[in-house]
Write a structure and sequence with these properties.
This protein has one domain: Divalent-metal-dependent TIM barrel enzymes (TIM Barrel, Alpha-Beta Barrel). Helix content is about 40%, strand content about 15%. The protein has helices at about 20-30, 45-55, 80-95, 120-140, 160-170, 180-190, 190-200, 225-230, 250-255, 265-280, and strands spanning about 1-5, 35, 60-65, 100-105, 145, 175-180, 205-210, 240.
Length: about 280
């Protein structure tokens, strides 16, 4: 297994001209790679990141999310579905440019939209259709899509790995699977290890994220049992830390990050990688 670090702890706008030192630190702390937000990145920056990461010997994965006001795979509005597909295709191309093979994220629906009820068959069908088209495009470029079920306070189409497994089975493409996230599982699953075992054949990416989004190992969302499951199911992909703090203003209100969760902004990375490595040894 490879250990990655999501740059959203520090920035939602990765810039190859500004973040070289950060990438060097991440390498020094013991990570195998980084996860970059690629949905709003231009192609030139994606290509530049690809060269920098190769020189540093760092691997990578891409991440994307959709704003329901402008793009939504599950919307009855054809224009919003079309825009979602265009953004996903852009993110897929950038994922290839940064040298990655996996694009992950809560891609089932646009974020920020709630209907006051659970997912309706029409919405589900639109989302399956849109993600199948994105998956077919991704397959042409050798990219896997890792769809992330997230908690009910952020999304309603798919909250559990069981929901996600049913979705990817309906998409029906070998390069479309699931992202299992410890934070969201901590909220939605009755038993996280059991849920991961049931969905094992679909899991192609993992986010290590504490219950308060802070330092992995400091709370209760990332216990030893998580790593036992991954060993047992033969998982050999990325374990990427997804943590947040007060350094990215655009995420504070969206994710309700009202306080710091560590003594130092880098602790989630520096201490988190040590925690993960201790369980992989």
């Amino acid at each position: 297994m490879k250990v990655g670090m999501n740059l959203l702890l520090w920035t939602d706008k990765p810039d190859p001209s500004k973040h070289l030192h950060l990438l060097q630190d991440i390498k020094k702390w013991g990570f195998d790679g980084v996860e970059l937000a690629v949905d709003n990145m231009d192609a030139a920056d994606a290509k530049a990141f690809g060269l920098i990461l190769k020189e540093l010997g760092l691997g990578s994965t891409g991440i994307a999310a959709l704003d329901a006001a402008v793009a939504d795979p599950s919307s009855s509005d054809e224009a919003l579905r079309g825009q979602a597909l265009e953004i996903l295709r852009h993110a897929i191309r950038n994922t290839q440019w940064i040298g990655a093979e996996v694009l992950c994220g809560p891609l089932f629906q646009g974020l920020g939209r709630f209907s006051g009820q659970g997912p309706q068959p029409e919405e589900w069908g639109y989302a399956v259709e849109t993600l199948r088209a994105a998956g077919e495009y991704a397959a042409e470029l050798g990219i896997k899509l890792a769809l992330e079920p997230i908690n009910r306070f952020e999304m309603y189409l798919a909250n559990t790995l069981e929901d996600g497994a049913r979705f990817v089975e309906e998409v029906g493409l070998s390069n479309v699977g699931l992202l299992a996230d410890t934070h969201h599982g901590n909220i939605e699953e009755l038993n996280v290890p059991k849920a991961w075992r049931r969905a094992a054949k679909h899991i192609v990416h993992v986010h290590i994220s504490e219950n308060n989004r802070g330092v992995p190992g400091s709370g209760h969302a990332v216990p030893k049992e998580i790593f036992d499951v991954l060993h047992d199911i033969g998982y050999d992909g990325w374990l990427t830390i997804e943590a947040f703090g007060q350094l990215v203003p655009g995420l504070i209100s969206r994710l309700h990050l009202w306080r710091d969760y560590a003594e130092h902004p880098d602790d989630a990375a520096r201490l988190g990688v040590q925690y993960i490595r201790s369980h992989l040894a």
